[in-house]
Specification:
Layout (H helix, E strand, L loop, with lengths): L1 H11 L12 H7 L4 H12 L2 H16 L2 H23 L3 H8 L3 H26 L3 H6 L3 H29 L5 H8 L3 H22 L2 H5 L3 H8 L3 H12 L4 H28 L7
Helix pairs in contact: 1-3, 5-7, 9-10, 9-11, 11-14, 14-15
Length: about 280
């Protein structure tokens, strides 16, 4: 039971999965050193006062007494919380990250969860504003049905936003009327790519008008390198420049991003080829 409890604690503390906890004892012994997640969870557990340990054990027993769907719901919520924590940490700039890491562990977790709750609350408010009453209806559904229904609603909302984005691009003169009419009927991914290009043009206009190239210290050659990036890489680079990353580091990243994309394509191609049926003899 203790191993299962520590596995759950790893997730609740944002430590990620703990594969070591799920191995058989013989496998764990053969593996040598324990996983960092388990060590962190055990260190945290060993420092707890006996009263708090009793409270955690009681919560764990209540969790085990729940129905499988209810347990699945809690595990899903823990996964969401862990992912949101990782995203919140990744969004910190260097100075903010340094200040946060200097805090005691308990305060770090408290501040992180405050940030995560604000993110989730804002997302819920935007969802409710877009789909009045939908949140309450979704909460009545089983988890998988709820996720499927929310996914369909998100797709419908995204399609509406894309259509509105196309009309705005036409009105502002970024694309012509004929191209816009074609784009309204284009597949989803083509609409996304086209509107990202329009967003890049808008951003370049703002950058030029506000003199941001000079603020970031980019000369003409360096500006041209950023301008020629594909939209996704362009926005990544501009975000990093805005956060204060040295331009030399930013300008070195697109080559790495391109290499990673190439590796992913190779992996996908290899996976596809290995799944092909064998030719008939």
């Amino acid at each position: 039971m203790r191993r299962r409890l520590l596995t759950l604690l790893c997730a609740l503390l944002g430590l990620g999965a703990a594969p070591e906890l799920t191995r058989a004892p013989a496998q764990a012994a053969a593996a040598g050193a324990r996983e960092p997640q388990e060590l962190a969870a055990r260190a945290w557990w060993d420092k707890l006062p006996s009263e708090e340990r009793a409270q955690w054990l009681e919560r764990y027993q209540r969790f085990r007494s729940l129905s499988p769907p209810a347990q699945q719901e809690i595990r899903w919520r823990v996964d969401v919380l862990s992912e949101e924590r990782r995203s919140a940490i990744a969004e910190m700039d260097a100075a903010e990250r340094e200040r946060w890491e200097a805090l005691p562990p308990g305060e770090r977790l408290r501040q992180l969860d405050v940030r995560v709750r604000d993110r989730l609350r804002g997302r819920a408010l935007r969802f409710e504003a877009q789909f009045p009453g939908a949140g309450e209806r979704l909460r009545q559904l089983p988890l998988q049905e709820r996720l499927d229904a929310a996914g369909r609603m998100a797709q419908d909302a995204r399609a509406f936003e894309l259509q509105a984005g196309v009309r705005r691009a036409i009105d502002e003169g970024w694309i012509g009327l004929h191209s816009g009419k074609w784009l309204e009927q284009a597949p989803f991914h083509e609409q996304v790519e086209a509107l990202m290009q329009v967003a890049k043009w808008r951003t370049l206009e703002v950058v030029r008008n506000k003199g941001l190239w000079d603020r970031y210290g980019l000369d003409e050659h360096e500006r041209a390198r950023v301008i020629t990036l594909r939209p996704r890489d362009f926005f990544r680079a501009m975000f990093l420049l805005q956060r204060g990353m040295a331009k030399e580091r930013v300008l070195a990243l697109p080559e790495l991003w391109e290499r990673l994309r190439s590796w992913r394509l190779q992996d996908a191609s290899l996976a596809s080829s290995t799944n092909k049926p064998l030719p008939r003899q």
